[in-house]
Design goal:
Number of domains: 1
Radius of gyration: 16 Å
CATH topology: Rossmann fold
Shape: globular
CATH architecture: 3-Layer(aba) Sandwich
Number of strands: 8
Helix content: 25-40%
CATH class: Alpha Beta
Distance between the termini: 10 Å
Number of helices: 7
């Protein structure tokens, strides 16, 4: 049953975007954005999900608008720590973002969880969500950790996804999303999986 749900979802995606199922992953889907991914969640009947790394809640609102009634868990510490981006590592600014997020999402079925993702994941049961969208710290260790632990919370046939699948040479803000996603996908023999280059988003169907 688990493989059946995974295959059904993969087949739907491959057919919808006219992809070559035999091509090497990741399969690129040009001219499709992460906003379209939010719409895909609705087409697949997803009812619950989590966004890891929320900042101002802008993409959280996109997810909610595309999926009326979805239960969305918005997870972000909104706290300073040494390995966070210098430009945003300001307690007053982060508190402002938290309040902005609360106001933006007040009319939706959202639960704001002000914790580090590795702590928040302990509050969720395995295979209890339809999707997760990972957009937290982009250093390799954090990306890998989020994928490892949050993948367990997504049900078979659901979608594990994330942002900033791109290169960045800024030494102060390391971007290791490409390295981490490829390493995980290779280690777990995930195929097919997908990239939306228009909005630097990656995703695959949970087995």
């Amino acid at each position: 049953m688990k493989n059946g749900r995974m295959n059904n979802t993969n087949n739907y995606i491959i057919t919808k975007y006219s992809l070559d199922a035999n091509a090497k992953s990741p399969l690129l889907i040009p001219h499709v954005s992460r906003d379209d991914l939010a719409g895909l969640f609705h087409e697949l009947g997803f009812k619950s999900g989590a966004e890891i790394g929320v900042e101002k809640g802008k993409f959280s609102e996109v997810l909610c608008r595309a999926n009326p009634g979805v239960k969305l868990y918005c997870i972000d510490p909104w706290l300073q720590y040494s390995e966070y981006r210098d430009t945003l590592n300001n307690v007053d600014l982060l508190n402002k973002y938290y309040e902005e997020t609360k106001n933006r999402l007040s009319n939706y079925n959202c639960e704001l969880i002000r914790k580090y993702s590795i702590d928040a994941v302990k509050d969720f049961k395995p295979e209890s969500l339809d999707f997760v969208y990972i957009d937290g710290n982009h250093h390799f260790d954090y990306v890998a950790e989020d994928i490892i632990h949050w993948s367990k919370i997504v049900r078979p046939g659901g979608i594990v996804s994330g942002h900033d699948y791109r290169e960045d040479n800024n030494e102060k803000v390391p971007f290791h999303v490409i390295a981490a996603t490829h390493a995980y996908a290779e280690a777990h023999k995930i195929t097919p999986w997908f990239v939306l280059p228009r909005s630097s988003t990656w995703f695959w169907v949970k087995t």
